[in-house]
Amino acid sequence: MENTIEKQQATTNSEEQLRSSLNFTNSPIDKLAVLIIEVLGSMTFLISCMVMLTGWICWNVKLIPGLKPFDPFPFPTLEMAVSIFAIILSISVLINQNRQGRIEKIRQQVEFEINVRAEHEITRLLELVHEIHQKMGLSTVSDQELESMKQRTDLEEIKRTVDQLQSDAAADHAE
């Protein structure tokens, strides 16, 4: 009974952690970042920039009659504006990459938790089938593979292995 309560509490805690991880985009800053990324990454924005740049150049090379040039060739004001915009765009790309990295990390965590839960369920099913097999009086041949599959997954061993692989990869990358 106590074991069942512990499992329910562990499941509830992991579900709460999962929910809070999935809601990381609900902060005002993240919503603003998503909005900026959506605007800067749209075809409408690209076309708007092309039209604006074409208009700016046409205005300042006197292709539009009646308008006095305000940024004559070689367009220093346009150059400065485009440079500032390039900085903003680069930062937006970095923000998006960081956000995508967080989303991917959450996906990996969710996938891992699902796999662990499935592993526990499959192990339990194997145990139940084996018990039914024994209760029915069917002959059982010692099956080492079955006994190995009925063993619980050691999450700490998996974590140690992953950490070791990551540190080895980091060491290889540093060389």
Brief account:
This protein has about 180 residues and is mainly alpha-helical. It has six helices and no strands.
Structure notes:
- With 175 residues, this protein is mostly helical.
- Helices cover 79% and strands 0% of the residues.
- It is built from 6 helices and no strands.
- It has helices at 2-22, 28-40, 43-60, 76-135, 144-149, 155-174.
- Helix 2 packs across helix 4.
- The longest helix has 60 residues, at 76-135.
- It is elongated.
- It starts with a helix and ends with a helix.
- The model has no long low-confidence stretch (mean pLDDT 82).
In terms of topology, how is this protein built?
Layout: H1 2-22, H2 28-40, H3 43-60, H4 76-135, H5 144-149, H6 155-174
Helix pairs in contact: 2-4
Main pleated sheet: none
Class of secondary structure makeup: mainly alpha
**What is the gyration radius calculated from CA atoms?**
30 Å
Give the distance, in angstroms, between the N- and C-terminal Cα atoms: 53 Å
Helices and strands, in order, run as HHHHHH
Strand content: under 5%
Helix content: over 70%
Low-pLDDT segments, ≥5 res? none
- The number of distinct β-strands equals 0
Count up the helices. 6
Q: Compute the average pLDDT.
A: 82
What is the overall shape?
elongated
Question: Keywords, please?
Answer:
175 residues; mainly alpha
